[in-house]
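Cross-posting from the modeling subforum.

Setting up a comparison between two proteins and wanted a second pair of eyes on the formatting. Protein 1 (sequence, then structure tokens):
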Amino acid sequence: MCSRRAFADEEQAGTLMALSVYGSSQAVLFGKGLFMAVLLFALSLLIVPVYLVLMDVAVFAWGLLLLTLLSGTYGMAMAGTLLSALMAGARAQNGLLSILMLPVLLPILLPAIVLTAGCFTGDVNGSYLVGMFLYDAIMTIAASLLVDFFWYED
């Protein structure tokens, strides 16, 4: 996932300190998170039509599929950006971040899989979408509350 590099590039280039001095922690985190969400959503808008054509799949609920893509990409981007900010100073970033990402992303991936399959079969359960929106809200609030603790050093 691209978000693992969100803060690691600044750490390696030495610009992370400049970001912490001149930018607020909230603005940097949400700027990187929203950029990653837009990037993932644009990528999914390119990949999904190709998948639908190649697999010859009919979609019964286009609106629900679009909301699932939007909510899933936002949740994945915010979770990845938050964990990337948390792991910015760690030495073993690649291995440790990969291990930490799976349990954090499972609550957004599993409902997204069920909803996507429901969009293809016509059997739709909207409670999974509510759960995805709640996960997005929890990730946004957690990122907002936790970013100051690892952004500013004493």
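Protein 2 (same layout):
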Amino acid sequence: MKKNNYCQIRLETVADHRMVENLIRESFWNVYRPGCSEHYVIHVLRQDPSFVKELDLVMEMNGKLIGQNMFMKTVINADDGRDIPVLTMGPICIDSDLQRQGYGLQLLNYSLNKATELGYGAVLFEGNIEFYGKCGFKYAKEFSIRYHDLPEDADSSFFLCRELIPDYLTGITGIYQTPKGYYVDDADVERFDRAFPSKVKMKLPRQLF
């Protein structure tokens, strides 16, 4: 548990689950698509054998839950035939009213330090380099790691990597695999979402889907 600027970061508990799901829903609603699926994704991933319970973290301010982050185990299918254990991350979010105030960076740094303490070698995931570069992430292509199912000439600037153990990926080339648990059915998302307060789905510019 860490306290800083009236905040604390701790492990998520079962009692937090619905509050965390609602926080994620509020944070991601209409951002990447009309509505969102991230709140259902974390609901599913908690039961996945690759879910890292020791890195399932929430952030509180004055007793109110304001942020969360989580990690999953996955692999790089190396070109030499090995499977290289790595982590992927997210969903990660901060309460919409508190974004761009440094809380996300604080949560992220704490999360990555904890993953390093636990002995994990690297984290790969999809994100914006303008933010995550502040925490040491680089384009995964700089490590010669390719994103699965992405054509060679496609834009891979969304695919980021950070070594937690220095030189962990040195000499390794290969293909990163997103854990299958992240892929959820839209119909399942719709059914799950009915248990939350009604919100309007909107098609907005810059959405990905």
